[in-house]
Amino acid sequence: MKINFPLVIVGSQWGDEGKGKIVDLLSNQATHVVRYNGGNNAGHSVVLNGEKFKLSLLPSGVLHKKKLFLSQGVVIDPKVLLDEISFFEKRKIKVNLTIDPRVNVVMPYHKALDRATEIWKGKKATGSLHLGIGYCYEDKNNRFGVRFEDLINATSLKERLELIFPLKKLQIEKVYGQKFDLTMETIYKEYNRYGRKLKKYLGDVSFCLAKEIKKSRVLFEGAHGTFLDGVFGTWPYTTAVYTIAGGVFPYVGLSPQKIYSMGIVKAYTTRVGNGPFPTELFDKTGNKIREIGGEFGTVSKRPRRCGWLDLCLVRTAIRLSGLDYLAITKLDVLSAVDKIRVCTHYVIASEAKQSQKKRSLRRFTPRDDKGKIIKEVPALMSDFTKCKPVYKEFRGWRNDISKVRRFEDLPKEAKIYIKFIEKQSRVPIKYIFVGPERSQTIIL
């Protein structure tokens, strides 16, 4: 099956859709694999021959020994990156990596600020992992950060710390009332050591890829999911970056041009952290999906919130990223469910009806109200919190499909489910994943 390049991989839900596996799979066809956004808060897992490789900064193409790039839209924790490089080198896998000099570096005070502000927010906390990613992006946008070019230059690193560190220490201790025991000298020594080790990976990613994109097969690996986008996601429960396909242009440094896009859709929906989730399940079915699907964060280990597939999310993701293809992941997990639901649209009840009687989102049925019908995620988050899902129900298949490799061999009920998703989304489904291994893939 032919897939067009250059190609960007986008999560169509709240992340954790299985982007790592599809990038690993498509890396076999690619020549260059580029991570273009996010930091080590976005983990990808790839399973090969029974071994699980957990990645948080290196692009998933590392297992195919491809040319790897971290563009300026990424922020790096140098210790995490060095540990990942060491992990693969110990397994005799060469890491052919280029890091853009404009990449910003996550510093210890970013992590301390992340933790301090989450404590201060209390019950309204975003659900951050305290990895400092958002605060690194904040400094980047405020021209107050440490870039990779500073990290690899001892003089520049010292000058940046002398400017930045005193203010950050005051902010953590005096504004938020939290302890911060690290000294500027300690941080300098540690990060100068990281810089010396990473210096060999320096390269102008923008310049290199501008030349390669017309003649090579470039694969862009996105982090997070569409609805964690810092602008178009379910704000403020989002990341600090653009997660939609168009972000690839400024985050890499490319001129606007045709880049194909593939959206990854989990066969159900999950979300980590706080924020609205219309199709969330609070019953034994939700617990079953979580356990069978292994729905625990790659980086955080936190249990993911689980719910039914939400086509309103998928439609919106298709519009925002202009998706050319879809890939369905974790279809095998639903084999354990007798009756499967899909949210086809939302209803927002009239104000009069809402004040008359409050209803739980998970108990809503189409007969409850004749409110406004919405088929995409509304722009107003105040509206989104009022959205009640309307479901179409499907029969489960109760068959083990993990060994199926052809669409024709799937149970009838599974084929009906997939065809319904394709018809509703109006985007061709090219891959269906029926297990975590690279080989457990159906190509349509």
List keywords for this structure.
444 residues; 3 domains; magnesium; Adenylosuccinate Synthetase, Chain A, domain 1; Adenylosuccinate Synthetase, subunit A, domain 2; GTP binding; magnesium ion binding
How would you characterize this protein structure?
The protein is an alpha/beta fold. It folds into three domains: 163 residues, Adenylosuccinate Synthetase, subunit A, domain 1 (Adenylosuccinate Synthetase, Chain A, domain 1, 3-Layer(aba) Sandwich); 95 residues, Adenylosuccinate Synthetase, subunit A, domain 2 (Orthogonal Bundle), CATH 1.10.300; 150 residues, Alpha-Beta Complex (Adenylosuccinate Synthetase, Chain A, domain 3). The strands form five sheets. It has a nine-stranded mixed beta sheet with strand order 7-5-2-9-1-10-14-18-19, with helices on both faces.
